């Protein structure tokens, strides 16, 4: 009976530790998204792009199709949003944070650009992966 009590205590402890790690990971991603939002609103596309995986394997899916690579994605943003007027003010609304594994998260949300030249909005899905201890967006589908 004592063995069962010890085993049950260990299972509960491991479960709580896992839940705490997930909450910590989710909070880290939320903080990164907040910083990314702030970077956009100051017109700093390079800082906005910082959480994206610096790899040719980064996948961005938008209205023009699939783009591969960090630099190509940044170049597309620069073409689409050449100045602060085009960039407007970005607001993220989070819909879901779903852990896929201990180092992978799936995030769904909504984006809104308030602009003097006409507002834009849509939804996004982000696949986050922890690489070398750092959370990175490895795939982004924004519509």
What is the topological layout?
Elements: H1 2-41, H2 45-49, E1 59-62, E2 65-68, H3 70-80, H4 84-87, E3 89-101, E4 104-114, E5 120-131, E6 134-142
Parallel strand pairs: 1-6
Antiparallel strand pairs: 1-2, 3-4, 4-5, 5-6
Quick summary:
With 143 residues, the protein is of the alpha+beta class. Helices cover 42% and strands 37% of the residues. A hairpin with a 2-residue loop joins strand 3 and strand 4.
Could you please describe the fold and organization of this structure?
The protein is of the alpha+beta class. It has a single domain, classed as Nuclear Transport Factor 2, Chain: A. It is built from 4 helices and 6 strands, in the order ααββααββββ. The chain has a 6-stranded mixed β-sheet with strand order 2-1-6-5-4-3, with helices on one face. A hairpin with a 5-residue loop joins strand 4 and strand 5. The N and C termini lie far apart (57 Å). The relative contact order is 0.15.
Basic shape:
globular
Please give the domain count: 1
Helix proportion: 40-55%
Reported for the largest beta sheet, the result is:
6 strands, mixed
Assign the CATH topology: Nuclear Transport Factor 2, Chain: A
Order of helices and strands: HHEEHHEEEE
- N- to C-terminal separation? 57 Å
Structural class, please?
A: alpha+beta
At CATH level 2, the architecture is Roll
The radius of gyration computed from the alpha-carbon positions, rounded to a whole number of angstroms, is 19 Å
Low-pLDDT windows of residues: 3-18
Strand order of the largest sheet: 2-1-6-5-4-3
Strand content: 35-45%
Number of strands: 6
Rounded mean pLDDT is: 90
Q: DSSP helix count? A: 4
Highest CATH level, the class: Alpha Beta
